[in-house]
């Protein structure tokens, strides 16, 4: 059993000590890594062949070496072979662990490690090979790749032996490797060994021979476990992180990155004025710069986000060729109008001529097109050159297939084909490894062996008139590989970054050196070959074992342009703004890292100041969740050392406010039972630390210390503050007098705004009306008019605003430190000093009153019910350019009609012509239309019983639709979702048609023609409407059919009636056609009615079907047609070209089209590949 012993070398010096960690293996296992997982790459066991071992002697070291050290699949160069034999005397008397003598192989010391009675396993002998370095003398970063075998044999009878073989990469960390279950002890002693007449261990003596073959580690990663592997350190390059299934993207990006001229061109795209993460050119520049400068693998999330991809897109593998083309198109768009406009076409684009040339007359028809890659057939070709020859092969048009060469030459024999006019400097070759298998009716991967050269001459495939002033010789630069099958696979790339030097393998985040054998032979595909050249058989099955990995894309560079394409890219080539941005981001990251590391040393302080309170226009004194950079009313934030004294904290805040620290006093903010946050008492002792003060603050629910900053209005002769309350006596005692700290807010009805004014100290026994002079002074109001009064309320909590009585004392009104009084200047014909007991309330039913608060209590009610609603145009039913999205702050109590008025006023449309839709919280798409009834905005956004049923609805957004008619008129219409077929059945367009409820199908057709802007029936022919159900034809609707009777759950189809159908009125001449895959029950697509013709062979029927369906070429040829009986249990009767459908089809039979549902990929997955940014 192969296993590793993880030990420290000190223990190994003591024969009686046990290793620190041993791996216990299950008896049936044969290959085990240190972590206990199976891996063919770590060790290969070669069981002895009984026929060979009968004549083999363990003492014949050369013969035994050939037997136990079989050729390796990797075929590394052999550096040294050594054989060492250790004789064990008195086996049963050996200690638990025993070391053999040191011997040398490959210039390094080795020894055998023996556990005579097992390494933490019962009834087993354990034998290992380990290096023999002294613990402190192991070279740093030492490694040695060794193929070895351990042979246990009878020293007197060498034909009796037992052996195991393995290979391993020995390192400082993995110092030993071998076999935990080398052999069961019961088989070693006192038992006749297999077919011989004596035991393996005889007279308690035996020999152990170690056959050690040191092989060259050419790439530095032979048999590497890649634990703690550093790509940058080992190769100088870094990989790309795989987001989910983006290995195909990573392989292409690495290929383009090492096309240095392309990288330089990308750097030159002007992005300094559009450093947006939605700009794919900018994110590609960022990616390339990081690949150039980073020490670790780089992420591609920024790039894929700029493509507009969502999470589901990064978990779906796409076609690399299509991705390459779309990426090139997008970069070409970014370069338009700049000096780079022709760079990409010159680098990647060649020209190809498609021609038909007459043989006997001087007539040729041809066109020349650009190409960005060449798709070459793998199937039927042995190598790349064969594929090129196949690509340009000439087809002869003769006999019945003659070419019409115009009126002058008529029908002529001709040659048809393609020929290359020129090849690009960088030639991308797509190998068609995936093809449609008509027998399996599915796409399949072609695993055939297909060779490609390191260099080739492309001139044989050029037109005779092509420019040959330079050789058309190409050198291989990149091999993009797919490993796996069609449904599951992995992509990686082999690239040669420089003209000369190593190849490297780029496998997502890992980069390793690669040999030419890995690049070429191992990616030709086909069957595995043994080192002796024979094909490796597939265990238990007929046929060879096929390689899962093969090249699917090749990148060649024209040899004469190698220096141009692989030009060096230096820091000077990278955009300065890009370098500056990364320097800024690095500095910010370092600052955040340092802040995180030191976070435990600091405490946050959130401070309300007079200035922030005056900016606050809502309830309480501030919003502690707001940030100062976004909200001027947010508390100021200070980062202080936890160990700092409160004196230091006061000094820091005073310096920020440009005040004398002696004039600053901090009040601790506390959470009251009514869920408000108010000042409780001042911090008078400044000796405790900030952390102690934070811990003593009662009922704090914030990670920061929350304070209100008071600035003294008076100072004494020494410059110390004179505080109205909680003043300190000479003996240090703090005294609380009867003054109360109150905060004042002013409601301005004209501005419809609430504003903090400041704070005042008032005695408890003072009356409420005595606050009026203080307010007048604070507001700089000289006097009140005869018909004015000042009305005051206490803000107890957001939903509890109580009017104050003028004659009541503050104590009777139960006012205390930190309470808030809101006041308002109002008209009053009775008395200017009336403090208004309860003011008249406006009815909430009056929609207009909800737009404007007449007094502070109404405004507080508005704040309580205020909702910020995002309005978006309906994606399918509204023009986003004409009506862009917007936000409005609205009272949640307004009615549907008032909501329509407000939104209509914003959009400039009639409120009666608006319809609203709720928003799906998961998809952010429209959910359901909002019914116009007696409900408020709050009820619309948060419906009654808001629970599991409505949790998928957003409560802060609505979609809107601008209608062509009023909602009242809309109630007289029926909405019908209709699918228009405009090109056979291949093109579907969805329309929502509004038809009068008392209308007929003829009215529906007229409305469709108007909405879809179609030619009239008089111009382009009559139309018909039919219903389908479960992808089968249900019924055709007559023109007189009432639209009110159309089934809401059926799919309604509209199409032009084909001219040949219009002439036939007998329904028995038509057959229903539907689509399915394999089983008639697996229906899909759009069904239709098709005209039968008496006596017509199916070969001719198919021509009419091809025209009727709208599919052409191979797409149509893949369809199998069958007559399907009405019975669910009958098998389809597949048709041949000589069948006559008229004779075979009976009444109620259908014609089935058997082919895969190509649209399922669009429904279930990401659909077509797209790049947005």
UniProtKB/TrEMBL annotation:
Keywords for this protein: Hydrolase, Protease, Thiol protease, Ubl conjugation pathway
Catalytic activity: Thiol-dependent hydrolysis of ester, thioester, amide, peptide and isopeptide bonds formed by the C-terminal Gly of ubiquitin (a 76-residue protein attached to proteins as an intracellular targeting signal)
Pfam families, alphabetized: MATH_2, UCH, USP7_C2, USP7_ICP0_bdg
Domain USP stretches: 238-559
SMART domains listed in its UniProt record: MATH (SM00061)
Protein origin, superkingdom: Eukaryota
Record-stated family: Belongs to the peptidase C19 family.
UniProt name for this protein: ubiquitinyl hydrolase 1
């Amino acid at each position: 059993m192969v296993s590793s012993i993880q030990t420290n070398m000190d223990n190994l010096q003591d024969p009686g000590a046990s290793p620190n960690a041993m791996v216990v293996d299950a008896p049936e296992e044969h290959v085990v890594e240190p972590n206990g997982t199976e891996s063919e790459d770590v060790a290969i066991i070669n069981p002895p062949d009984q026929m060979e071992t009968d004549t083999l002697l363990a003492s014949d070291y050369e013969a035994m070496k050939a037997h136990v050290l079989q050729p390796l699949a990797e075929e590394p160069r052999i550096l040294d072979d050594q054989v060492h034999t250790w004789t064990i005397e008195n086996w049963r008397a050996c200690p638990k662990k025993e070391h053999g003598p040191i011997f040398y192989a490959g210039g390094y010391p080795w020894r055998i490690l023996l556990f005579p009675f097992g390494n933490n396993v019962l009834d087993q002998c354990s034998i290992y090979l380990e290096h023999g370095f002294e613990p402190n003398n192991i070279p740093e970063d030492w490694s040695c790749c060794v193929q070895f075998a351990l042979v246990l044999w009878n020293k007197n009878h060498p034909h009796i032996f037992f052996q195991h073989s393995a290979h391993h990469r020995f390192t400082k960390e993995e110092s030993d490797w071998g076999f935990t279950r080398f052999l069961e002890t019961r088989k070693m002693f006192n038992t006749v060994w297999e077919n011989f007449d004596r035991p393996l261990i005889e007279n308690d003596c035996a020999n152990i021979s170690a056959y050690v073959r040191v092989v060259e580690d050419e790439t530095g990663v032979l048999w590497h476990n890649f634990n703690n592997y550093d790509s940058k350190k080992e190769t100088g390059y870094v990989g790309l992180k795989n987001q989910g299934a983006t290995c195909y993207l990573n392989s292409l990006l690495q290929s383009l990155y090492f096309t240095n001229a392309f990288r330089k061109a990308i750097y030159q795209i002007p992005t300094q004025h559009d450093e947006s993460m939605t700009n794919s050119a900018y994110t590609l520049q960022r990616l390339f710069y990081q690949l150039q400068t980073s020490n670790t693998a780089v992420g591609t999330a920024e790039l894929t986000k700029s493509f507009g991809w969502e999470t589901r897109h990064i978990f779906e593998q796409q076609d690399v060729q299509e991705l390459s083309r779309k990426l090139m198109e997008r970069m070409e768009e970014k370069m338009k109008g700049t000096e780079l406009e022709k760079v990409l076409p010159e680098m990647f684009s060649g020209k190809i001529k498609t021609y038909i040339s007459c043989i006997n007359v001087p007539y040729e028809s041809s066109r020349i097109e650009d190409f960005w890659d060449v798709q070459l057939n793998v199937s039927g070709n042995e190598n790349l050159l064969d594929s090129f020859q196949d690509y340009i092969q000439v087809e002869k048009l003769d006999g019945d297939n003659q070419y019409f060469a115009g009126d002058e030459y008529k029908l002529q024999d001709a040659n048809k084909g393609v020929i290359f006019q020129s090849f690009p400097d960088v030639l991308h070759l797509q190998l068609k490894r995936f093809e449609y298998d008509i027998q399996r009716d599915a796409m399949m991967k072609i695993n055939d062996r297909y060779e490609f050269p390191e260099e080739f001459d492309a001139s044989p495939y050029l037109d005779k008139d092509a420019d040959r002033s330079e050789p058309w010789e190409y050198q291989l630069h990149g091999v993009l590989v797919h490993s796996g099958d069609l449904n599951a696979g992995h992509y990686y790339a082999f690239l040669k970054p420089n003209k000369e030097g190593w190849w490297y393998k780029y496998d997502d985040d890992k980069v390793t050196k690669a040999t030419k054998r890995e690049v070429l032979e191992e990616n030709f595909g086909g069957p595995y070959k043994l080192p002796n050249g024979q094909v490796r058989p597939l265990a238990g099955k007929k046929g060879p074992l096929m390689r899962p990995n093969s090249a699917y894309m090749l990148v060649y560079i024209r040899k004469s342009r190698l220096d141009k394409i692989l030009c060096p890219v230096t820091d000077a080539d990278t955009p300065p703004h890009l370098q500056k941005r990364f320097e800024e981001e690095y500095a910010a990251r370092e600052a955040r890292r340092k802040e995180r590391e030191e976070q435990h040393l600091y405490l946050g302080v959130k401070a309300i100041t007079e200035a922030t309170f005056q900016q606050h226009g809502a309830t309480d004194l501030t919003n502690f969740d707001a940030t100062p950079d976004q909200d001027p009313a947010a508390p100021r934030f200070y980062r202080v050392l936890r160990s700092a004294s409160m004196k230091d904290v006061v000094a820091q805040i005073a310096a920020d406010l440009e005040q004398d620290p002696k004039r600053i006093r901090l009040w601790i903010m506390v959470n009251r039972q009514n869920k408000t946050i108010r000042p409780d008492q001042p911090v008078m002792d400044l000796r405790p630390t900030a952390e102690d003060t934070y811990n003593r603050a009662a009922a704090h629910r914030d990670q920061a210390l929350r304070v209100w900053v008071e600035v003294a209005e008076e100072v004494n002769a020494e410059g110390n503050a004179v505080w109205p309350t909680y003043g300190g006596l000479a003996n240090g005692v703090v005294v609380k007098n009867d003054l109360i700290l109150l905060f004042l807010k002013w409601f301005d009805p004209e501005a419809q705004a609430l504003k903090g004014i400041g704070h005042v100290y008032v005695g408890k026994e003072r009356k409420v009306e005595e606050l009026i002079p203080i307010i007048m002074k604070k507001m700089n109001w000289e006097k009140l008019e005869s018909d004015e009064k000042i009305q005051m309320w206490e803000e107890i909590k957001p939903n509890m605003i109580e009017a104050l009585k003028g004659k009541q004392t503050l104590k009777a009104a139960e006012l205390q430190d930190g309470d808030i009084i809101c006041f308002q200047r109002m008209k009053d014909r009775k008395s200017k000093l009336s403090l208004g007991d309860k003011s008249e309330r406006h009815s909430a039913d009056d929609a207009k009153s909800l737009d404007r608060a007449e007094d502070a209590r109404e405004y507080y009610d508005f704040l309580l019910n205020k909702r910020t609603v995002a309005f978006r145009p309906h994606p399918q039913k509204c023009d986003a350019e004409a009506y862009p999205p917007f936000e409005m702050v609205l009272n949640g109590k307004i009615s549907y009609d008032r909501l329509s008025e407000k939104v209509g006023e914003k959009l400039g449309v009639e409120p009666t012509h608006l319809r609203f839709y709720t928003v799906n919280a998961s998809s952010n798409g429209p959910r359901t239309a909002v019914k116009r009834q007696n409900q408020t905005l709050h009820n619309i956004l948060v419906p009654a019983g808001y629970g599991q049923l409505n949790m998928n609805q957003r409560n802060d957004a609505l979609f809107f639709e601008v209608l062509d008619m009023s909602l009242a008129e809309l109630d007289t219409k029926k909405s019908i979702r209709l699918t228009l077929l405009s090109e056979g059945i291949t093109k579907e367009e969805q329309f929502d048609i509004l038809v009068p409820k008392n209308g007929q199908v003829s009215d529906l057709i007229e409305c469709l023609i108007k909405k879809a802007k179609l030619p009239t029936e008089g111009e382009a022919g009559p139309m018909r409407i039919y219903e389908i159900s479960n992808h089968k034809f249900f019924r055709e609707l007559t023109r007189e059919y009432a639209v009110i009777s159309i089934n809401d759950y059926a799919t309604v189809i509209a199409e032009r009636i084909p001219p040949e159908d219009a002439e036939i009125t007998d329904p028995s001449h038509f057959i229903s056609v539907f689509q399915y895959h394999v089983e008639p029950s697996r229906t899909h697509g759009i069904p239709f009615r098709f005209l039968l013709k008496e006596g017509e062979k199916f070969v001719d029927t198919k021509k009419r079907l091809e025209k009727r369906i709208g599919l052409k070429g191979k797409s149509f040829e893949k369809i199998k047609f069958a007559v399907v009986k009405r019975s669910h249990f009958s098998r389809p009767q597949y048709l041949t070209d000589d069948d006559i459908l008229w004779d075979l089809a009976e009444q109620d039979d259908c014609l089935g089209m058997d082919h895969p549902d190509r649209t399922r990929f669009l429904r279930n997955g990401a659909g077509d590949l797209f790049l947005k940014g």
